[in-house]
Amino acid sequence: MSVSIDIENVVKRYGDKTIIDGLSLMVSPGEFFTLLGPSGCGKTTLLRMIIGFNTIEGGEIKINGNVINNIPVNKRNMGMVFQNYAIFPHMSVKENVAFGLKNRGLSKQEIEDKIKEILDIVKIDEYKDRMPDKLSGGQQQRVALARAIVIHPQVLLMDEPLSNLDAKLRVEMRNAIKNIQQQVGITTVYVTHDQEEALAVSDRIAVMHEGKIQQIGTPRQVFERPLNVFVSNFIGVSNILEANIETNGGERNINFDNNYIVKMDNLRDDIKDDLKVLVSVRPHEFIISKNEEGIKGIIKGSMFLGLNTHYFVALEDGKEIEVIQNSDLSDIIPNGTRINLEVKPNKINVFDCNSQKTLIQVGEKHEYAS
Amino acid sequence: MNMPAKNKFNIWNILALIILSFFLLFTVYPLFLVLKKSIVDPNTGAFTLSYLTKFFTNKFYWVTLINSFKVTIVVTLLSVALGLPIAYLMRKIKIFGNKIVETLIIISYLSPPFIGAYAWIQLLGRNGVLTKFINSIFKLQFNGIYGFPGIVLVLTLQSFPLVYMYISGALKNLDNSLDEAAESLGYTSLERVFKIIIPLVMPTVLASCILVFMRVIADFGTPMLIGEGFKTMPVLIYNQFMSEVGGDDGFAAALCVIIIALTILLFLIQRFVANHYSYSMTALKPMMPQKEKGIKNIFAHLFVYLTVLLAILPQIVVIYTSFLKNRGGQVFIKGFSLDSYRATLLAKDNSIIPNTYKLGLAAILIIIVLGILISYLTVRKRNSLTSTLDTITMFPFIIPGSVLGIAFLFAFNQKPLLLSGTAIIMIIAFAIRRMPYTIRSSTAIISQISPSIEEAAISLGASETRAFTRVIVPMMMPGVIAGAIMSWVTVISELSSSIILYTNKTQTLTVAIYTEVIRGNYGNAAAYSTVLTLTSIVSLLLFYKLTGKKEIGV
Which stretches of chain A are assigned E, i.e. beta strand? Predict the structure, then answer.
């Protein structure tokens, strides 16, 4: 009974400023779908268009194929969890959860049962008679979630629900949210600017920037095969290096400045010789080379973080990059050491310098593709 | 919030329109009539400046304006000279009994100034206790503290609490680490006061100065009672309007216009100061009063105690007087009795106290309902309509009471709007005049409620009106009640408009006190004043209890 959400060419304008100009996406029934992007990218605006707090100036939003553009918020039957939880401070936990049930013509017993059920699911049954100011941030978060789910909404919307929690609680709560969402099986749209959080909870992620969708894909897809430089930079850490393409018969190589040449087998067929490209290399996609091959650099600093050791390396052109090595591999390399860096050709991403778009083959089969 | 419903005739706009028409009818229209009467000849209907010219060319008249300025400026300066050091001392040094001292200061602020005037007449008037005492000791012919010094004494003691409360609030938001930072950078205690503390509270000092200025320049009761030959503008206005030989409406209107122009100017200055010279501070670690030793400690205590004693003295005198044995309320004889209460509270058919409560509570009811709606509309439903509402509802704040009273009589003296002489006109005057307190504290609290609270309620299926009544209104209540109590206390001590609007049937406590004083019946006046003071104190305690705060919003 989960529903799908179709967003077709929607437009959002404030006065004569267009925030979102013809955006489309589709969320499948029961999916945990995340809108991810930096602040001001339009993700919250889009979320508030779905629930109806924002008007829609063009295009359509459909639930299971039915246009909902003109249905008032209180008739849309969507649950929303707010960034600041928006718990009613003058009502107890139970009254908060009951609020949405009370004008639905349910019997007292039905209301009681539903409250009991949901408080069990979100694990705050023992606090049901407390006032909100006696709850911790995590507990308030659970109340907000319970209150939104208990009305059996068609869609659950969450607007940066974890941003007010401390780091440890954030991890705990995102697991809880993920579990509860799976348990209830409700179509969910989740907004966040935290890429790690998005990777952790989502079935699919839409990366947004300046009101446009940059990429939609599974967490692995957006992390490992970003479609453009923005996505590559926004999700995880990327070192962007300049290089040139060298074609040699059917072979396509990337030539880094100091003549370190890497053979690639997943670049698009139509690439021309000598094309300027940007190569995105994640810190863990470098190998500190034992031989003379590789990009030359000097270690400027290091940071031991247990499992991994991070190195800050200055390249010959002055650019500083970050390299991560498994701490088990070697002792910490002292500052000032000259090293050569190789890259993992099947991991790195290559973008056209002008269009900033990926040059990796569409539908490229790599071992993790889903 | 941006709702899909684009309908301009939604419930909020309709409410805004209704409230706006209420204010147009009861504020803008009467004031417009005042302006019209001041520049239109009633016989020919032509434009005339004769009323204004009459004022500015006749020394008998324009001197009242000079007098008003003299009084106001001196009182404002003295109020700062008392309020600032007391606020600082109370925050810096542990004053024994500081809680009581603070409460006494607030009580003296809440009581109507003219009661102070009348109490000081009893002490330092022609036949005052202190006057006789001084004259007999020093063999003087001191004739009582009337005129300029009397007005200044009374109004200063009544106004410095306002400066105190404002500055005390600002000092509380001043983080102690600012002072400590300056100390660590090598500044001495006195240098820190002048380089850190005073500059930071300066905007507050200015703001409170302007408020004192506005209150004092509009005050009518004090100069009327203790001013004698020294007339100020509000006294002139009252006399011109109420004159037994047929008041001159046009001239009175012209006087009103002059004083409104002044208060509007002050209000604009105040806005400017508030917008341009305020620092937003919130103290994580406010200044904590420290125990002081030696001469510094003694001096601080003496200064605070003496000032507060002077401020609260009128209340003590009044309560004391109310228990004196007397004949017919005028001649006091030795011993104590409940004569004054017998003659007032317990007198047959005495409707003064029930009147005060009935009219006051009716006004408060209007204030609460409109206050909630106005603050909600102006904060949450911002549009040109509600912005207008926001401005108009602050109007009464700058219109002196006597001017509002006169304007009401101009406007509602004939059918179809014949309201003069009714209880309704009194209630509306109270409501309009004292609503800003409730609006301000309601606005403050609604600004703190996140809009997503309301959105949450709506997303859960509640209609906008249900979200408002079930979620927003209950959440606003603490702020509304706090403001309403302040409105209540000022309603019952209101004199300047009720003295113009009352009839025998709608006499209130303040009017009764005033008329009894004028008649020389000090016993009855004292008994009424005591009732008024007690009501204020009980209201204040209720305020403390409900808000859990030990300070009042001013």
Answer: 5-14, 17-27, 32-36, 58-63, 66-67, 78-81, 155-159, 187-192, 204-209, 212-217, 239-248, 251-255, 261-264, 276-281, 286-288, 295-305, 308-315, 320-326, 338-343, 349-352
Domain range for B197: 49-311
Same-domain pairing of B71 and B214: yes
My answer on whether B158 and B23 are in the same domain is no
Answer yes or no: do A73 and B5 touch at CB < 8 A. no
Q: List per-residue pLDDT tens for chain A, 370 residues long.
A: 789 999 999 999 998 899 999 999 999 999 999 999 999 999 999 999 999 999 999 999 999 999 999 999 988 999 999 998 899 998 999 999 999 998 788 899 999 999 999 999 888 999 999 999 899 988 999 999 999 999 989 999 999 999 888 888 889 889 999 998 998 899 999 999 999 999 999 999 999 999 999 999 999 999 999 999 999 999 999 999 999 998 887 788 899 876 788 988 888 888 888 899 999 999 999 998 877 888 999 999 999 998 999 999 999 888 999 999 988 877 888 999 999 999 999 999 999 999 999 998 866 544 333 3
CA distance A15 to chain B (A): 12
Determine the residue of chain B that is closest to A157 in CA distance.
B459
Residues 435-454 on B with a CB inside 8 Å of A are: 450, 452-453
- CB-based contact B455 A86, cutoff 8 Å: yes
Query: Is A67 at the interface with chain B, CB within 8 A?
Result: no
In terms of domains, do A285 and A205 share one? no
- The Cα of B225 is separated from the nearest Cα of chain A by a number of Å equal to 49
CATH of the domain at A259: 2.40.50.140
Domain count along chain B:
2
- How many pairs of residues across A and B have Cβ atoms under 8 Å apart? 77
Q: How far is A330 from chain B (nearest CA, A)?
A: 48
Q: Considering the domain boundaries, does residue A357 fall inside one?
A: no
